[in-house]
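Postdoc handover notes: sequence design on the structure in folder B. Input tokens:
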């Protein structure tokens, strides 16, 4: 009885039971006011809320959140405590990402122009997503969540669950606010969002991380979208009122029936009522939800599509669709596929009060070429990432959307964690793209079955993942620094022009670029001959003897000018593509060496010029700053083999092949900012095994970015 009269308990119950976005927000505000806790105090909000709400009904929820927050990945909320993130879109993927970032200690604000959660469509859940949501307290907020054999949930209910968790963790969620674009830094002001209404306090929020989860409607500048066009596929979704009667409860769901597996059913459907489908799915949730792929011929014959057009946009344009006929088509398909067992079928209503039935073009799906990028303006960097439909549009009948959406949310949170810990932009972007490569291949069968160990760390979810399958040099285009654009272009053009001028007229030499034109070695030899003809006899060279030509040029440049090769001569044959980054470094040094008459071998100025060019173009700080550091005698700290410039990394004053930077105990690849170094032993460990030798750890220290 005491619980019912305690105002804070009653407010908490109202918050938990709220069934609309507006009601949830209002009840939460009232609860915070009553408990005198300020949601904007995001660093301490959750702990204060928990301390002041001493209510037995909340304890189970606190335990679940505390268990999640205690995971080592979050470093007790300190991993990203200096970062601020704006998430665009309060859909399931945007909110799920916001929750992870809040656990990392990030100050998070979510914007959504909608003021209500009204999407009735039902999402199929993979086993790991069910476990994940249960661990966040989904049952507390939605008692029917995944009861028995039910493995799905409506988008609306999922949003409500995630909204409530996000609010509890101190995430600011602003609905009814339209995002108009990014505002670049100005003066002392950092990155901000242009919003409508302009007076909204979200307009003053400065951030260094931006997550676009706004669906296909908004993809930030800098991302390229691939169009995946296949065979014509017309999708129909329909939601009917679920009155939760015994008769409705007895109707069997259809988890996914395709024509290829049940031709008799689809033939009967076509012959008896004229509805011709490729597949159909039926889930029972807040509504009776159907999604199907219909054949164009039957849609034309039934008058759903008024006129045939070869262009799918014209074909499915609102003016070419008979809405009443579409409703009848969906009704007939739903009624027949459930063997007429659903009584009094009535369409549920969408956000505009219309029958909730829609037709879509599944022919063309879109996916981003990259999952993330970094922009820099006036010295202020912004990490931008895509999640949800902004990243990959799902094919709804397959039921992969939310499972892959959550995987991408976790992968993005892992990247933000490394960003907050000072990770180098190119390295964390390359790691994120390595994960993104796997996303479209994931299935319930090929991801890890150890759901209890899942975290934002990709290695807990993807078996045998290679976190470095994409190299930093492959994501150079995703670091956008307008300040360097003109300088970069001019430097490249100047270098190419100089190379062309000084190799013009030489036989078997035609320099067109700063990569493939140098494969045969003839262009390098021509450069040397043009300035120092006594060093080389061009008539003795064979353009097809690539290894010999390059070895001759490399050896001469190292002996005469102290310029170390950036790769082995034999690699000029074996490598599939000449790395432009490598050649820019090397050719810049050669140009300086050949045009400076009195420059002694090994002068730092030669290499510094190459580094400046490299940094302007590629924004890659891993290149050493002194030519003396890359002399022919330098060896890898780990394997003791020759170390070339483009293979090189460094930490704790040690230089090594980046591929050799592994944990001494388990052999896992180490990251800058994510290792422990035992100075007495001279050994590097991953964070997991950093306490392998307790007495040595006390004398070592945790690695930081070098």
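Designed sequence:
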């Amino acid at each position: 009885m005491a619980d019912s009269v305690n105002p804070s308990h009653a407010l908490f119950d109202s918050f938990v039971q709220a069934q609309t976005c507006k009601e949830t927000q209002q009840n939460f505000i009232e609860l915070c006011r009553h408990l005198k806790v300020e949601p904007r105090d995001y660093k301490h909000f959750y702990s204060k809320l928990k301390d002041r709400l001493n209510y037995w009904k909340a304890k189970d929820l606190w335990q679940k959140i505390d268990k999640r927050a205690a995971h080592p990945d979050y470093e007790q909320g300190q991993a990203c405590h200096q970062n601020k993130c704006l998430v665009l879109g309060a859909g399931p993927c945007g909110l799920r990402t916001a929750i992870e970032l809040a656990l990392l200690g990030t100050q998070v604000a979510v914007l959504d122009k909608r003021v209500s959660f009204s999407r009735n469509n039902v999402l199929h859940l993979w086993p790991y997503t069910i476990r994940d949501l249960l661990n966040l307290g989904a049952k507390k907020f939605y008692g029917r969540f995944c009861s028995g054999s039910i493995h799905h949930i409506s988008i609306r209910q999922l949003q409500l669950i995630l909204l409530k968790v996000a609010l509890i963790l101190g995430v600011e969620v602003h609905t009814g606010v339209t995002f108009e674009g990014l505002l670049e830094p100005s003066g002392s002001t950092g990155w901000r969002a242009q919003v409508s209404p302009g007076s909204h306090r979200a307009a003053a929020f400065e951030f260094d991380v931006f997550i676009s989860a706004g669906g296909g409607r908004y993809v930030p500048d800098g991302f390229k979208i691939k169009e995946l066009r296949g065979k014509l596929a017309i999708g129909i979704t329909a939601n009917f009122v679920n009155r939760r009667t015994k008769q409705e409860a007895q109707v069997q769901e259809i988890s996914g029936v395709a024509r290829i597996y049940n031709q008799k059913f689809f033939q009967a459907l076509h012959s008896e009522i004229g509805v011709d489908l490729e597949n159909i799915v039926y889930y029972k949730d807040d509504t009776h939800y159907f999604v199907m792929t219909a054949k164009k011929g039957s849609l034309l014959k039934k008058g759903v599509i008024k006129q045939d057009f070869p262009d799918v946009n014209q074909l499915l344009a609102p003016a070419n669709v008979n809405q009443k006929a579409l409703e009848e088509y969906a009704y007939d398909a739903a009624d027949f596929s459930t063997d007429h067992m659903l009584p009094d079928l009535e369409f549920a209503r969408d956000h505009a009060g219309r029958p909730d039935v829609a037709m879509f073009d599944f022919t063309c799906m879109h996916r981003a070429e990259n999952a993330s990028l970094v922009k820099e303006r006036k010295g202020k960097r912004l990490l931008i990432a895509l999640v949800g439909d902004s990243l990959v549009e799902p094919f709804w009948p397959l039921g992969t959307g939310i499972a892959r959406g959550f995987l991408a949310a976790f992968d993005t949170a892992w990247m933000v964690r490394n960003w907050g810990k000072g990770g180098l932009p190119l390295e964390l972007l390359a790691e994120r793209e390595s994960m993104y490569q796997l996303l479209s291949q994931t299935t319930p069968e090929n991801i890890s079955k150890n759901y209890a160990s899942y975290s934002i760390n990709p290695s807990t979810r993807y078996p045998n993942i290679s976190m470095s399958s994409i190299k930093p040099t492959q994501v150079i285009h995703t670091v956008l620094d307008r300040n360097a654009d003109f300088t970069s272009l001019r430097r490249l053009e100047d270098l190419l022009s100089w190379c062309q001028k000084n190799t013009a007229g030489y036989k078997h030499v035609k320099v067109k670029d700063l990569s493939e034109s140098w494969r045969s070695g003839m262009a390098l030899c021509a450069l040397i001959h043009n300035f120092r003809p006594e060093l080389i006899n061009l008539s003795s060279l064979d353009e097809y003897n690539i290894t010999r030509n390059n070895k001759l040029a490399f050896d001469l440049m190292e002996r005469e000018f102290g310029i170390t090769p950036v790769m082995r001569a034999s690699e000029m044959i074996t490598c599939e593509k000449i790395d432009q980054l490598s050649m820019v470094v090397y050719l810049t040094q050669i140009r300086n060496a050949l045009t400076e008459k009195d420059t002694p071998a090994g002068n730092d100025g030669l290499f510094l010029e190459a580094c400046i060019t490299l940094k302007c173009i590629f924004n890659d700080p891993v290149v050493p700053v002194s030519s003396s550091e890359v002399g022919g005698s330098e060896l890898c700290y780990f394997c003791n083999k020759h170390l070339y410039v483009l293979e090189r990394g460094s930490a704790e004053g040690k230089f090594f092949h980046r591929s050799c930077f592994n944990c001494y105990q388990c052999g896992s690849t180490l990251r800058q900012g994510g290792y422990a170094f035992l100075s007495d032993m001279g050994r590097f460990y991953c964070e997991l095994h950093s306490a392998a030798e307790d007495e040595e750890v006390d004398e070592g220290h945790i690695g930081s970015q070098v």
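Context for whoever picks this up: The first strand starts at residue 84 and ends at 88. Don't rerun without checking with the PI first.
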